[in-house]
Amino acid sequence: MARPRLAGAEINPRGVRGDMTAAELVDTAFLAYNGRKLRDACRLFAERMLEPDVVVGMSVTGALTPAGLGMSCLIPLIENGFVDWMVSTGANLYHDTHFGIGLKMYQGSAEADDVALRNAGVVRIYDIFFDYRVLLSTDTFFREIARLEEFQRPMSTAEFHYRAGRYVAERERILKLKRRSLLAAAYEYGLPIYTSSPGDSSIGMNLALLEMEGHGLRIDPLADVNETASIVYSAKQSGGRSAVFILGGGSPKNFVLQTEPQIQEVMGVAEKGHDYFLQVTDARPDTGGLSGATPAEAVSWGKIDPNRLPDTVVCYVDSTVALPLITAYALARRKKRKPRRLYDRRAEMLNTLTSAYEKVRKKRLKRGES
Question: FRET pair for 311, CA 20 to 30 Å: which of 49, 228, 297, 326?
């Protein structure tokens, strides 16, 4: 019987120092278990996913913006060209807006008496507190802008967020606030942000009220499906690669990944799947839920290129722990990339995908297929 081989680097770290950078700490002290997975995630993102020809899509789930991660991590990633498009829950964008229009949230306690908080007009997100009037003020903001003439027609969530982001950015300017809102940063850098379930948030609730009042704004989720698929297809057709960076799971995870089945399965256009897959999650795969589904399972759906399975990492760590470390590592190890401004190229990318589908469709019609 052959002796088992001892492979890999020896575990022999230097002592942790008080003057270590975050990137140095990750490289030298995160050697096993989920620490090592986090190091693998940092390296995959910085060394491979941020190559010049890789288009990076990110999904954002969980209450990250209320915890300040929009300001601390997501905005720097956008500013440095490290993320090119996003799918987010509506809740993250709604709570992000609080900061951009000058409202405040505070560190609180998860053990607080919620009945007492309710009586005092305080809302709690685990250990984050804010005044109930923050919700009312943000509701008013979205209703006021969505009543404007420019919003009175059907549009994708990316267009709605871009137009809303312009008003958030203007509010930031008037209030002399800097780098507070993810929506404002996305507007400034032409980064499209989609919401996979636009009615499932306070933004959607307020837009539903405007529909009841007879206003013309209609969010078109089908436009989102085609636009996101076109981003991925255009990246691959231009000789580049596609990467997904998934924070949490849920509907945004599926939406960022379903771009490939939309291209391959539904449209019948030849493609192989995303090239890189990085997920930060606390969900188990054995419950059968999408949030815990592995990249290997995604291969069976055509979501991930099977030849690129080694270029995938699942990191079982809370996003509030992992995202600041991954962000710091990337900023330390990678030079700034030029923002792609994919929002400005939506029509061009959609035309590229439409042309590819029309060729497939003509062949199907010739064969008598629907």
Answer: 228
